[in-house]
Write a structure and sequence with these properties.
Elements (H helix, E strand, L loop, with lengths): L9 E7 L5 H12 L2 E4 H14 L7 H9 L14 H10 L3 H16 L7 E6 L2 H5 L5 E6 L2 H14 L6 H17 L12 E4 L5 H25 L1
Parallel strand pairs: 1-3, 1-4, 2-3, 4-5
Bound molecules: 2'-deoxycytidine-5'-monophosphate (DC).
Length: about 230
């Protein structure tokens, strides 16, 4: 059987809706297992920022592809990519097949050879368990009620000194999820073998404990296999 590019590393795929807590959980899982972590949403946000900075149109395939080809990964931690304007534009560039194709190799290489010689990687996004790494060792699909996600996002923005009205945030979040779920290419959906975790009624610690419980048997087993073998 032909081996897929990520077969040799241990992978936790974390997909889910916007502001569901998937990024925080992915980071915590990576720290717990000493795995590398990649927020794939940052790649689409960086693409969107490049397009907007160049005064391009995020819905235009040529502008969007140029953006994807010019992203500067050193800006992945830049707060400028976390704004809702960039989030909406990220969802638009993410619907373009050429953009997804341009970002595919980077994501698969990250999973095949996690940085720092780590035995595994955690990647969060929308299509990690369905398209980027269908053979992932463990898969989670994170969701929460939209009102709660909008409230969390409101609090996060408030913490950054950005005042937004919650109803507007909720409308944007619903629109972005609908676009991400309905696009023809790599839509957001739960992989058949992904475990669903609804974080609506869970604080961060409880959500992390639940996420860990859902993946630990598979990940501990894969780590043991590696040591044996
Ligand atoms: O997770 P996020 O909010 O940072 O993602 C921003 C947008 O990028 C999201 O609305 C859809 C897109 N995205 C995607 O299509 N596929 C991914 N693997 C990650 C993000």
């Amino acid at each position: 059987m032909k081996k897929s590019p990520t077969t040799r590393s241990i992978v936790i795929a974390v997909d889910g809706t916007a502001a569901s807590g998937k990024g925080t959980l992915a980071k915590k899982l990576a720290a717990h297992f000493h795995f590398a972590h990649l927020d794939s949403g940052a790649l689409y946000r960086l693409t969107a920022l490049a397009v907007l900075d160049a005064k391009g149109d995020p819905k235009d395939p040529a502008d969007a592809l140029k953006g994807a080809q010019s992203i500067d990964l050193s800006l992945a931690g830049d707060p400028a990519i976390r704004t809702d304007v960039v989030g909406q534009a990220a969802s638009q560039v993410a619907a373009i097949g050429a953009v997804r194709q341009a970002l595919l190799d980077f994501q698969r290489s990250f999973l095949a050879s996690p940085p720092g010689g780590s035995p595994g990687a955690v990647m969060d996004g929308r299509d990690i368990g369905t398209v980027i790494c269908p053979e992932a060792t463990a898969k989670l699909y994170i969701d929460a009620r939209p009102e709660l996600r909008a409230h969390r996002r409101w609090l996060e923005l408030k913490g950054m000194g950005i005042a937004r009205d919650e109803a507007g945030l909720l409308a944007e979040l619903n629109a972005r999820d609908a676009a991400d779920k309905s696009r023809p290419i790599s839509p957001l959906k739960q992989a058949p073998d992904a475990a669903l975790l609804d974080t609506s009624d869970l604080g961060i610690d409880a959500a992390f404990a639940a996420a860990l419980a859902l993946v630990s048997t598979k990940i501990e087993g894969a780590l043991k296999d590696r040591h044996r073998g």
